[in-house]
Amino acid sequence: MQVRRPSPTRVSVGVADVFVALGLLAVLYMGVSLAFGAPPRVAGPTITLDPAALPYYGLRSLLRMAAAYALSLAFTLIYGYVAARNRRAEMVMLPVLDILQSVPILSLLPVVVLALVAIAPEGLGVELAAIVLIFTSQVWNMTFAFYHSLITIPREMLEAAGVFRLNWWMRFKSVELPFATISLVWNSMMSWAGGWFFLMAAEQFQLGGRDFQLPGLGSYLKTAAEQGNISALLLGLAALVVLIVALDQLVWRPAIAWADKFNLQTVEEAEPPRSWFLDFLSRSVLLEHLYGWTIVPLGEALDRLIGTQPAGSVPTSRPFAKRKGHFLGLIGTAATVVLAVVVIYGAAQAITFMSGLAFDQWLLVLAAALATFLRVAVALAIALAWALPVGVAIGTNHRLANQLLPVVQVAASVPATALFPVVLLLLLGIPGGLNIAAVLLMLLGTQWYLLFNIIAGAMAIPEDLRYTTESLGIRGLERWRSFILPAIFPFLVTGMITATGGAWNASVVAEYVLFAGNVYQTLGLGALIAGSSASGEFRLLMASTLTMVAIVVLINRLVWRRLYALAEARFHLD
């Protein structure tokens, strides 16, 4: 079996990029059209600030987060695998991923919320919309990480899979998924934290005078912030921290300890990751029997169904296969033509709709884009300056990791949007306080993407390579230049690209804040998107969103994709 080794990622703009951009334009226009016909108010429960409601609200938010994560994981495994293993699909799927991860969550509200409310019962539609919006805050980071893990698998592992003639299922199960597990676990933690960050925006929001709200911790915190109730805000944060700590101890720490067995190394670690809860579960006889009665038979059934097919097997009836392939090809061509017509028509309608914007409004959009770009650059530079040394220190010292990871997980998961109004009030009295506050919130929404990817990259370094550098006496800056930075470079690139997208998304909540009945905003694309979404200025919303998408995609193509290609070409553990 010949295993496809992806060639360096494209960095030029092609037909697929144009088609995807037009498709996004058509989808946004569809959302705006739905917004004009939506009812003035979508009924929802009244959010009470009674502390007794916090356990129920916490459970509702946790279930939404879990449902969104399940969707994100399924999407990641399928989308990332196909993009990494099919060159033709990759040419379309990567531009789609670039664009989708750059669309801010509030710009998706008209499309997601109003479409689901229109086709589903009222309460269910808003619930599904919240899950989808949380999904969009989790999935892109995981998908980028999984895709990049697959394209940086050591060459000898792929050659061994070819020698043993493993088909796609056995190769995925035995080689690809194990190699990507460490990165996937760490980025799952980061994506879950990202879901908490945007929970307030997903559970309660306004769209052109239309109110949407759901019972949950996010809506509790947002209601407390809007009313200026500091005691309720602190109680909600305390409940959220308790929930985060419980998840860290019962879910993420066991996952990290379990994933460590997939580390590529021939030397035993002195301080491997440990989890008291995982050790406790390993002593359960009942759990062992349940595993043997359910998971093991299911895995064996999948192996018999898929894994026994020989690699490179071909159909026995070639004429039928040829006729079937020709028929499917005709259907695919017809579907592509129909889709292209719909996309072009929708894009033309969107362009006509946006042509109603005045020239000074376009100038405002460009000035706002420049202001947000500068804030993103500053936030990214600050995040990289501290996350790189700290992430490497945690990832290469398991004793330090065991002590600091619970703290890092809690700090990353606490939504800065809940504390931001209080911080904003403290900074408003100083010159440029609003700009400083916006950069601070962008930093809080960016730094964790970098830190978690750097930790994952440092932990994935084989222990024998560390011992080799120590025995050779490589120290200081030379060790960073010749060993650490090359070893973590693929993870660093993934962290940078997701952190950049996270910073642009965070601008929506960093540049436009509602606290105690007052709106605080500064010049920026995020403020334009949030303000136009709340006021129903859909032309300005579309123009601001498309400008942000264009900037993020351009940065991805000119900077991050070139670094991806460099990581594919030079920085493998081969």
Could you walk me through the main structural features you see in this protein, from its secondary elements to its overall organization?
The protein is mainly α and 574 residues long. The chain has a single domain, classed as Orthogonal Bundle (MetI-like fold), CATH 1.10.3720. It has 22 helices and 4 strands. It has a two-stranded antiparallel sheet with strand order 1-2. A two-stranded antiparallel sheet has the order 3-4. α3 packs across α22. The model is unreliable at 1-12 and 312-325 (pLDDT under 50).
What is the CATH architecture annotation? Answer: Orthogonal Bundle
Terminal-residue CA separation: 20 Å
Largest sheet: 2 strands, antiparallel
Low-confidence stretches: 1-12, 312-325
Helices and strands, in N-to-C order?
A: HHHHHHHHEEHHHHHHHHHHHHEEHH
Helical element count? 22
Mean pLDDT: 76
Strand order of the largest sheet: 1-2
Shape, principal axes of CA atoms: globular
Which percent range fits the helix content?
over 70%
Q: How would you name the oligomeric state of the polypeptide chains in this document?
A: single chain
For the CA atoms, what is the radius of gyration?
24 Å
CATH fold-type name: MetI-like fold
